Structure formats: C-alpha cells, structure tokens
C-alpha cells in the first residue's frame, strides 16, 4: 500500500501564476478530501468527493480555486490566479467506507511570492 | 455547527511521564472520533478511531477514551518518549455531516530526554 501520494512536495510561484496540485488516493478508496493547513487557521476542509463526484465544496475560498476528480485514482486542485495569502500546506486524504479512518498524504507546501 | 477544541495548545514533559491530551466537541451527535499524530513537515497519521458506541480504544502505549454525552475524549500516553514529540489532533465525524471530519487545533507535545 503506497498510501496517498501528492505532488509536488513543494511549489514556489509568483503571484498571478496558475498552480496545480495533484493527488493519487489509496487504491479502492472512494472518498477524497482536500484540506489546507496554516498556523493561523489550522486544518480547513476545502472540498470532498464521493465516487469522483464533488459532495461539498463550501470550504473552497473563492472562484480562484477549483478541484476535479476525473477518475477514482486522480484528483487535482487548481488555483488561478494564485495570491500570497494562498501560501499554506495543502493535504489530500482518502478513505473507503463511511466512517473508516482517514489517510493523509504528505502534503504540498505552496509558497506564493 | 460542530466545534472541536484541544487544550492545551502546547505541552512539554520530561521523558517517562504519563500524560493526557484533551479533546472536547460541542455536538454530541457524532458517528466516531479519530486521533492523529502529525510530525513536522509531514501529513497526519491515524492513531486510533473510536466509534460512538465505544468507550475506549488501545494501541500499544496509547489509550483513547470517549465520553460522548459530555463531549469529551482523552488520549493517554504511557511512559512518554522523545519520539512521541509531535502535534496530536483529534477529529470528529458527525452523524449528519456525510463523511466529513471536523478537526481540533491540535496539541503540540514535546517530550524532553
């Protein structure tokens, strides 16, 4: 079991640029979550998918953020255009059945200058 | 809306001490509660999952208890070691929130040799 795989591990970009974060959930898991973690706000849920369908995106900060899950083994979180306040660690997590433990990737540390 | 609080935010203890980390939640209608550990620069690692019908779960030197009616959970760490130094987070899964978790802010633990 390779765990949840995220790429890149680190991303440094300039304000206004497009950023795409990638996630491969654990094989067989059918729920996928995107979280953002900052010192000030802790862990915030951005969006989650069940069976590749977005269920709740109320945590997505604004229209600059979008997420897709084209198939069961891949998801992307895109920020366009990026701003310095988007700097944070972005985590992807997955789980199988309802109520099962949630498994996290190692995160992508995003810095927008 | 569910709110999860962890007190203290930081804790420093000498090696060998038994210690208790606290987690409280405002809405007792939960499905389960999960404890995580986060090392610097890493994702969250699941430690223990307690179902709402359970009172406690044990794994090695860790014991987590749940008192749903009072909205509390504790994580007990026996004979603490420097390798236990990390941030510990609790998260609850509500009955009516789909598969989403609400996280506490975490307790940053330092175990001094």
Descriptors:
heterodimer, A: 113 residues, mainly beta, 7-stranded mixed β-sheet, 4-stranded antiparallel β-sheet, 55% strand, globular, B: 113 residues, 5-stranded antiparallel β-sheet
Description:
The complex is a heterodimer of chains A (113) and B (113). With 113 residues, chain A is mainly beta. Helix content of chain A is 0%, strand content 55%. Chain A has strands spanning 5-7, 10-13, 19-24, 31-38, 42-50, 53-56, 65-71, 74-79, 88-95, 103-104, 108-112. In chain A, strands 2, 4, 5, 6, 9, 10 and 11 form a 7-stranded mixed beta sheet that branches. With 113 residues, chain B is mainly beta. Helix content of chain B is 0%, strand content 58%. Chain B contains no helices and 11 strands. In chain B, the strands form 2 sheets. In chain B, strands 2, 4, 5, 9, 10 and 11 form a 6-stranded mixed beta sheet that branches. Chain B is globular. The model of chain B has no long low-confidence stretch (mean pLDDT 94). The interface between A and B is medium-sized, with 24 and 23 residues.
Summarize the helix and strand pattern of chain A as letters: EEEEEEEEEEE
Overall shape of chain B:
globular
| Main sheet makeup of chain B | 6 strands, mixed
Structural class determined from secondary elements of chain A: mainly beta
Helix and strand run of chain B: EEEEEEEEEEE
Query: Which range does the strand content of chain B fall in?
Result: over 45%
Which regions of chain B have little confidence, pLDDT < 50, spanning 5+ residues? Answer: none
Assign a percent range to the helix content of chain B. Answer: under 10%
Q: Catalogue the unreliable spans of chain A.
A: none
Estimate the mean pLDDT confidence of chain A. 94
Q: Number of helical runs of chain A?
A: 0
Q: Which structural class do you get from the secondary structure elements of chain B?
A: mainly beta
Oligomer: heterodimer
